[in-house]
Specification:
Two copies of one chain form a homodimer. Chain A has 134 residues and is of the alpha+beta class. The first copy, chain A, folds into two domains: 77 residues, Orthogonal Bundle (Arc Repressor Mutant, subunit A), CATH 1.10.10; 48 residues, Ferric-uptake regulator, C-terminal dimerisarion domain (Dna Ligase, domain 1), CATH 3.30.1490.190. Chain A contains five helices and five strands; from the N terminus they run H-H-H-H-E-E-E-E-H-E. The longest helix of chain A is centred in the N-terminal third of the chain and has 13 residues. Chain A binds a DNA duplex (25 and 25 nucleotides) through helix 4.
Chain lengths: 134, 134
DNA sequence: CTGACTGCAAACGTTTTGCACGGTA
DNA sequence: TACCGTGCAAAACGTTTGCAGTCAG
């Protein structure tokens, strides 16, 4: 029983070869959109259906096992759930980088303006990554 | 020549009654999705087409006159371009509030981690607004 | 054994496109 | 007048659904 299998069970998701492959790809690549996933899984499962990808992604989101990240001017990507973090999106190569940012300062500012009760924070930086700025 | 007309001309957009109405609604309501706009404009233009809304929204985005805001678990909304700001989205009533947040602190943290060159920052707080938490 | 997952095809909702007509500059 | 915008219909996309067969627990 490998890591991915254990992970799926932890989140009450039935273990199937297709699901293991999805987790594996997300683990390896960090962030993938639906098409990325479909193309990757086609290698292992030549007759896999896009519907299967959608169904699995949706049930994984419901179980909070993965999360959707909405990106400006691009398709949403999915990632394994982890501690709160921000994203850097390179507008040149499209690469997405996780960044640990402490948002206490922003939350502090917010609390001086409004009594809005924050549940979650989505923070995306768009710009040019190290590689592309060379 | 009213305000909206001048605004459109400033952004090199031809002035039509439909476009004036779109700007007017966005000005009054702050944030609207495509359907909101369509329903509102139907009052003034009973035979307006959704295609017209889409075409206009797209050309306004191209000219940087309006901007798309991607919201977690909801449709994108559009707003007139203005100074950088964050958004508070109420998961109970859906209302969206503009908030002026200074992101220097976050940018400072980012610069200690990576040399990613930031062009823009998208910051969305999801939670419960003042009204809904009563 | 039972319920859940898969793959296919069809359905659905959203967005875009092509075209004839009308309006803006 | 020349070009661009409008509205309609059709097309193109992306995503979801229903179903029969298969697999995991």
């Amino acid at each position: 029983m490998n890591n991915y299998t254990t992970l799926l069970k932890d989140y009450n998701l039935k273990v199937t070869p297709q699901r293991i492959a999805i987790v594996e790809e997300l683990y390896k690549n960090g962030h993938m959109n639906i098409d990325d996933l479909y193309k990757k899984l086609l290698d292992k499962f030549p007759s896999i259906s896009l519907a299967t990808i959608y169904k699995n992604v949706n049930s994984m989101i419901e179980k909070l096992f993965i999360a959707e990240v909405k990106i400006p001017n691009a398709k949403s990507v999915f990632e394994l759930t982890k501690a709160e973090h921000a994203h850097c999106v390179c507008s040149s190569c499209g690469k997405i980088q996780d960044i640990e940012i402490n948002v206490e300062d922003a939350l502090g500012q917010l609390s001086t303006i409004t009594t809005f009760k924050v549940d979650s924070v989505d923070l995306v930086f768009t710009g040019v990554c190290e590689d592309c700025s060379k």
